[in-house]
Amino acid sequence: MDKVSANLTLIKTFFIRDMKIFASYKLLLFTTIFGIIMNAILFFYFSKLVDSSPNPYLDGSYYMYVIYGVAATDLSVILINRLNNEIRDYQLTGVIDSLLSSHHSDLKILILSYPFGIFTALVRFFIYIFLASFISGQNILDINNLPHLILIISLYIAVIIGIGLMAASITVLFKRGNPILYIYFFLSSSIGGVFFPPTVFPSYIQFVSELMPIKILLDILRDFQTGFQFINVGEKLMMLFCYALFFLISGFFLMKLSLRMARMKGQLTNY
After folding, report:
1. More confident site: 247 or 55
2. pLDDT confidence tier of residue 220, bands split at 50, 70 and 90
């Protein structure tokens, strides 16, 4: 019980630290909110162009389609880059060695940057959703489905944290030029169903698209617009759960391995 209490205290300490750092950049808060509002408005008017003519690839409004994609991509970018950016900041400011010299494990200290990152990503996600609902005048999310949404988003966040850990393990060893980030963001934005339906592609690309975590998430989220039934998404939820296990286990393993190798080679503090 004391160990649990100590870990919760540590999480709270790092959360408050990160929140104070974020709050100290007052212009950053303004530009963040302004950017979200501009994106929501821009895609609303762009959707008028797309919706002005019949579209065989879309069942409903393009705005409803794309806003989930934009919100999910924003959440993915923040969380995948979270640990990667923290490690680079620690290396550049020269504090990584002192941080990792504490009596806590290296991995625990590094992943403590995630709680505030998750909080920030979720706040931004819901701002997108509720702002889009206000702009379009449509009820994007039924409050009765909120528990289901939390479960779905939680599974997806676990997947993204796993991928982020894998990406961060490369940053520990090679500092820059992270292929995992580039590959994931390229595939997500191109065939992940973020900006347009993957049905425009040949069948073999559609098959790959159906396996992507962000595509699975977006399919479930867009079901909220067409009459969400929890029982109908059981298979997709199971896929997200399996992805979460695979990427978290792989991410933790690769991260521990990279930290050990970096210490052995004396590369941990290099930047």
Report:
1. 247
2. confident
> Which pLDDT belongs to residue 177?
62
Secondary structure in 3-state letters for the chain = CHHHHHHHHHHHHHHHHHHHHHHHCHHHHHHHHHHHHHHHHHHHHHHHHHHCCCCCCCCCCHHHHHHHHHHHHHHHHHHHHHHHHHHHHHHHHCCHHHHCCCCCCHHHHHHCCHHHHHHHHHHHHHHHHHHHHHHHCCCCCCHHHHHHHHHHHHHHHHHHHHHHHHHHHHHHHHCCCCHHHHHHHHHHHHHCCCCCCHHHCCHHHHHHHHCCHHHHHHHHHHHCCCCCCHHHHHHHHHHHHHHHHHHHHHHHHHHHHHHHHHHHHCCCCCC
pTM above threshold 0.85: yes
